[in-house]
Fold:
Amino acid sequence: MTSTHLASRMGTNNPRLIALDRTELDICDSPRVIEFVARLRPDVLINCAALTNVDGCESDQEGAFAINADGPWNLGKACKTCEALLVHLSTDFVFNGQSDRPYRVEEPPNPLSIYGESKWRGELAIRKSGCRHLIVRTSWLFGHHGRNFVEAILKKAEAGEDLRVVNDQVGRPTSTIDLTEGLLRLLESSTEGTFHFANQGQCTSFEFAVKIVSTSEFKVIIEPITSAELVRPAKRPAYSMLDLSAYESKTGHHLRQWTDALRQYLRERKGRRTHELNPSRLQMNSTAKSGVELDRNSTGLFQREN
Ligand SMILES: NC(=O)c1ccc[n+]([C@@H]2O[C@H](COP(=O)([O-])OP(=O)(O)OC[C@H]3O[C@@H](n4cnc5c(N)ncnc54)[C@H](OP(=O)(O)O)[C@@H]3O)[C@@H](O)[C@H]2O)c1
Structure:
């Protein structure tokens, strides 16, 4: 989801961008990662690859640690050898959710799930590799090109199904459109280290679902429930608000509210759907589709100009 948006934002024809999907570069394949990076000698390598199925990670612990911890270690080692900057995405799920105020960057993680633990170990691996790095923790992502909470809610609402959504987990929904701009701003500021990035505001998952449905003008019933009523394999933090001050003071950019970002996403989504359904636009649509195919990637390398 994030990688596709990032690649299309940077331009599929951008000669300085090489966007790779899993079939082209499996980040778990250490020799191939080392060889690939040594050959391309990128200035910046952006890693969006991850195993993001939070419940799935509980039953595939080996896969979770291989992709979310060993993969970043491979990338870190490779970047170290050619002094490339490694940009890596991490998650609010590294925290245990016991706080009563937004988590600052330097607060100690204490993940509750295999997903959170594997992502935390990925962060540690990158720092240990000694490479130049920019680690950006984000939360509750939604965007075009992928499975996410907004799409899951809309799918049910479109089918006229009533919903039950947990009302005791608080966080900050974040648009991949805004995340992409945030990553580019951080890159422009030539900074390194760890940052938190999310849209401003806060809500529970239930409040998020209500906003998605009401903005889309669906009429379905949404029942608030507790986490205890929804038995799931992975435990989620009750409170995973990220403190955004480090990002905002470094870039001078004040982040917008998640409600504004959601409105933009839903407006664009409606436009995309109209576009897809309009036969007079078939030619343009097929072009757009092949663009999306080209955009599939999870890792981006920016080549040196010299
Ligand atoms: N989604 C969220 O709500 C959220 C919240 C906080 C942080 N994050 C973090 O943000 C980043 C992006 O998340 P996202 O939701 O945009 O991800 P996503 O849509 O799940 O995409 C992850 C991508 O990683 C690829 N991948 C998996 N294993 C790989 C491997 N071994 N080598 C190369 N590529 C591999 C996947 O390819 P296949 O499809 O072929 O498997 C997929 O294209 C992740 O680091 C995630 O942990 C996400």
Remarks:
- The longest strand covers residues 85-91.
